[in-house]
Amino acid sequence: MSLRFQAINDLSNQTNDVEVSSRKISTIFGENVFTLKTAREYLSDEAYKSLLASIKGGKKIDRAVAGSIANGMRAWAESKGVTHFTHWFQPLTGTTAEKHDSFFTIKSDGTALEQFDGDALIQQEPDASSFPSGGLRATFEARGYTAWDPSSPAFIIEIGSGKTLCIPTIFVSYTGESLDYKAPLLKALEALNKAAVEVCNYFDKNVTKVTATLGWEQEYFIIDERLANARPDLVQCGRTVFGAAPAKGQQLEDHYFGSIPERVYHFMRDFENECYKLGIPLKTRHNEVAPSQFEVAPIFEEVSVAVDHNALLMDVMDRVARRHKLKVLIHEKPFAGINGNGKHNNWSMATDTGVNLLSPGKTPKTNLMFLTFFVNTIKAVHDYADLLRASIASAGNDHRLGANEAPPAIISVFVGQYLSKVLNEIETRVSDKFDEQDEAILKLDIHRSIPELMLDNTDRNRTSPFAFTGNKFEFRAVGSSANCANPMTVLNVIMAETLQQFKKDVDALIEKGDKKEIAIMQTIQKYIVESKNVLFEGDGYSEAWHHEAERRGLPNVPTTPLALDAMVTSKAKHLFEKNNVFSVAELEARHEIELEKYIKKVQIEARIMGDLALNHIIPTAIKYQNELLQNINGLKAAGLPESHYKTQLEILNKISEHVQIVYEKVHALVEARKIANNIENTRTKAIAYCTQVKETYFDVIRYHVDKLEALVDDEHWSLPKYRELLFLR
Ligand code: ADP
Ligand code: MG
């Protein structure tokens, strides 16, 4: 029996035997995290103060104190049964990385004991050669090291009965180039903090710190593990490269409103519990549009912590799913013809005085602060749309962006009807002659429309890649499997840059003698005029928008190899270098790494297509043809006229046609790959993989394979079909 039918058989015997704790969330929340509260308990006063100063003010921890913190951490971890520790980091491969060491050691006199010293806490040297470096290593130094990032708390990962203390770290080369997602993110957040505080001080001198906030919404599919294992494409690339559309897809939209199936619900509660223990503040779970598609979202947090938590969540989900004999698919487009997975990044900025800078204010004065940050965001997105586009570019996301349910590759901003009106008012009413009285009236008028504006929250435009949703912007074009750090690094650094310019522009007007508030209003007006091209309230899925965007001169780059060009323009180099986020060498290395990742992903998919076509599809089709032939010959031998086996002949013929084309195209695909592989330049090679390999062959091979699926006897078909993957559980 094929794996497919075994899996289907097993499904009917499926039972929920995994025990899921039903303890109250607040009693388990953060149980496996070395929180400040735990630190207070396990550390000396001196060590605690030093840790606190490092978390709050970025102060360096010295070696002696590190030893004492390490001891405290070990004592806490051991009280929970932990035997090993690891530096935990986010390399550019897109997953998280660990290298476990035990606390266990043997002293020179032979005594065996557990130990964790300050050096081991602060720094480790994982073998960097197995992680991508984009040529940095050749140019600089061979080794890399991980360095403790105290701003993110240590935590314990439980796998079965094994428990490991994880120390969040950044990953850098010996000469200081960052090799991970986290290091540049922290730098971008620092740039934003500085620039935003200065602008806040126009309105409130008490603000001394601004933190960017992130609440991600993670979409995923969950399917039966045994069915998934019978699909080599799902096992190897997380996506089905073939599969005919099922009779019932998502057209009834009954999944979105339906109740969560029991087996999935059980799994959700289990992984949620694991996440709560790790301090991930999950809040919502619900069905998504496509069958077997779901979403999970937390309460928002500081960006750097939220990024860690999302990376952890993806890992936890995958592991917990195995316990339930389920498989999580986080790929951007696991199935053709139905919705793909996204990861909306809800983003805002908060002051240490407790103000959300993207929340419309309660007084005319605080409204001006809101408008300042609101308009600066629009300007940042307008000026650096190409970089935002590049920050979400990946082979997986190419399948999703611009497909009919996902935001297009054109970056535009949706602000809603009322805020559009407010922006128009400012644009027309603020002029050179604009005086204090005009300003006072305008401020009041704007303030009056605020209650209406709040109603606007419900007026959601689902088709926009970057939308204002009442008190935050939602960057919707982010792919589901992406590390949020990449788009967050870009968004925060372009915001920092724009705010710095804003400060300069306003100060220049003040110097010329303008009153502060008038100078601010005039600069806001100028920014609205300069960036209103990026505002779009209509249907982002429509063909008309593509034409309109082209007319406006907005970039529309649908494929990754070309979208990545934006990373290495002189504008980008200047931006990142000036804000101390990437050196030119680091930027070029990253560009190279992203291109290489793209090439490898397409290469793997192409190979899988070839393997499946030659080893599964064609042999199955031929087997069925033989049956038809036997039948035809039998009927012939019985002396029946051709009219009796006309249909059989026709099917036989059709199958031959499809088999022929599949075979030829797979052969040509292999040749195209060979040619692409010989290309020296990484960018040219990535473009070849995109146009000569993927675009030329993927769809056409799939078309004929899916036709065969519809023709061949179901009993022979070895790959689980869409209807089984999506509806059986
Ligand atoms: P929807 O699915 O309608 O977009 P959700 O409620 O699922 O909305 O998700 C909204 C997300 O936005 C949540 O993760 C929430 O925590 C986050 N969020 C809310 N306020 C902020 C904020 N000020 N900064 C960042 N994220 C926020
Ligand atoms: Mg959303």
UniProtKB/TrEMBL annotation:
Alphabetical list of Gene3D superfamilies matching this protein: 1.20.120.1560, Glutamine synthetase/guanido kinase, catalytic domain
Residue stretches making up the GS beta-grasp domain: 83-176
InterPro entries: Gln-synt_C, Gln_synt_N, Gln_synth/guanido_kin_cat_dom, Gln_synth_cat_dom, Gln_synth_gly_rich_site, GS_Type-3, GSIII_N
Span of domain GS catalytic: 181-617
PANTHER family linked to this entry: GLUTAMINE SYNTHETASE, TYPE-3 GLUTAMINE SYNTHETASE
Family membership: Belongs to the glutamine synthetase family.
Record-given protein name: Glutamine synthetase
Protein source organism: Hydrotalea sandarakina
